[in-house]
Amino acid sequence: MLSRVCRLAPKHALSGRVLCGQQQDPNFRNRSRDYHASTTRHTGVRVLKPCLLTNTNLSATLQPLTAAVLVRNLGTGVDDKAALLQTIPEPPTIPLQNAPEVADLVAGAEPTFASLGLGGWTPVGIVQNCMEFLHIGLDLPWWGCIAIGTVVVRTLLFPLVIASQKNAAKMNNHMPQMQVLQVKMTEARQAGNAIDAARYGQELMLFMKEKKLNPLKNMLVPLAQAPIFISFFMGLREMANTPVDSMREGGLFWFTDLTVCDQFYALPIITSMTLFLTIELGTDSARMSAAGMQTAKYILRALPIFIFPFTINFPGAILCYWACSNFFSLLQVGFLRIPKVRDFFKIDRIVTHRPETLPMKKKGFTEGVKESWTNMKISRELEERARIDEIRFQKAGRGPLVKTYKHDPTASRATATTPGTTVNAKKR
């Protein structure tokens, strides 16, 4: 128990001076326990230290303490508790000048996608959940979320691109042998010789099996990218139409609002141009050339021009994803054209064939369209002829005999005789 004298020490008495008091403890045989309260002028730290003081009477000059620290830590007797509690000052108020209010925190928080009706376990919902994780979990802007999501998905599809490139290179290197069989098969089909056409078709299949060629491998990348592109397209469109309020300021450069279309038409132009370069320089163009599908190649070249009127009305989020995907495709094409990279992934070097040495001559767009239309007409006529022959064959086997002569040789014929004469048949 500390001395009451120390409890009654005034605040001004602690400024650079030492005050002492003494208390007699009957349990320790009149052993004095002395304390003094001291302060430092420079630091202002108050310390209680034991000391010895005799014959000191400070009761006339001491006043109650105003320091809350000493009042809380110094002990008192039972009689003075009520008086001591009356001198306890109010606790100091903590200034909260920079602390945000709870209402401000709630107002600045973004609603979850589940509360907006977005997300789920469908392919579209999974895309939206991934976008929300990148935006909330990693604190990324929306354009960064779209770009990172595109790069991650296209990187996961990279093994399919390698397999497609290997197959396309092999088909290009064996194109002369394949074109010889294709020309013979086409001529036999146009002549109506189904047996020779089937024989050449079988030889072509055996040749492709021997060289481990498969035209379906060229379609791995488009078939894998189609559902992913549709999921991203529908997911970002729902997010822009809901709308997600933070997407209004989640863009970049001139397209800050990703929920509306680009008013400068810059994103649609960039998307169309990058798509054209991807088709012209990318794996799709090489595949079409290797397979001899020149007409499809021309159609793909016209695709960017055809889709441009529709892309000008798309939200900025969709065009941002589409442009990022096209840029990644261009970087991928340039990366796979490096000879050391092709050797590392064991992709055959592409052999350049001279057009005059190939059995199938390269034709222009108009000639190619005319030839395709002619082949379609011939194929249709042959199919119609085969169908008619099949119907006639069935009728000949089931129906009555068709009369193809003037007189029926199986019917009895009457013998012409003159009147009055009798003809006797010779009996055998």
Automatic annotation (TrEMBL):
Its main location: membrane. Residues 142-333 form the Membrane insertase YidC/Oxa/ALB C-terminal domain. It is found in: Membrane; Mitochondrion inner membrane. InterPro entries: YidC/ALB3/OXA1/COX18, YidC/Oxa/ALB_C. The keyword Nuclease does not apply. The lineage of its organism: Eukaryota, Metazoa, Ecdysozoa, Arthropoda, Hexapoda. GO terms for molecular function: membrane insertase activity. CDD domains: 5TM_Oxa1-like. It is a multi-pass membrane protein. This is Cytochrome oxidase biogenesis protein (Oxa1 mitochondrial). Residues 408-428 are annotated as: Disordered. Belongs to the OXA1/ALB3/YidC family.
